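pinned: reference chain
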Amino acid sequence: EPFFLSVGFFLPHVPCFATQKWFDLYPDDDSVLPKILRGDRDDTPRFSWYMHWYLPEVRHKWLEENNQWRNIVRSYLACTSFTDSQVGRVLSALKRNGLEENTIIVLWSDHGWHLGEKQHWRKHALWETTTRTTLIISAPGQLQKNLLCRRPVSLIDLYPTLVELCGLPSRDGLDGHSIVPLLQNPKMEWKRPVLITYGQGNHAVRTERWRYIRYHDGGEELYDHDSDPQEWTNLAN
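pinned: its structure tokens
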């Protein structure tokens, strides 16, 4: 019979606890740290701080002063590898039960995670590191395998996409759009940008090349991902 499984994993998430073998995958040195730019926030609007300032987020300055930056990054990486292994258990079970070639699989998460980039931690922002996330779709017999698509899409596109992949009647009035055409041809022209909102009146628009952010007080950021994938240089002015 047709079946549906929604399999959720808590990690990677605070508290970032994992057993020692997952930590051992990563060296206990600064090679695990993300590449950052000192003073990266100097050209961003003041409201970019207010988005998270009163939330219970650890401060990057505190982590560096207390020699905890590397520790928390290794903890996050260990939790990520642990979760990756759990995804592997699900895939192995599908294969073991003869369902590997007859099951649509979608792997995604709800948001990205800052590890000190832009002097910021966790989420609660409109930058690339917060809003970009994992999205892998497998539909045996319908799609080519092992292809990368660089077009921007949104998680609200998942529902209409699954409806189409499953051969179910389409629905009107949805904000999302089926990305099956992109799954079949990842290089096709795709003019739809992605809109991200966090808090009232704070929005980001992401095209394949640009990210534009506008805060409710009028503050702006603009980044050219062709030349600045780390979003270090705000071009809004």
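why pinned: The first strand starts at residue 105 and ends at 108. The longest helix spans residues 69-96.
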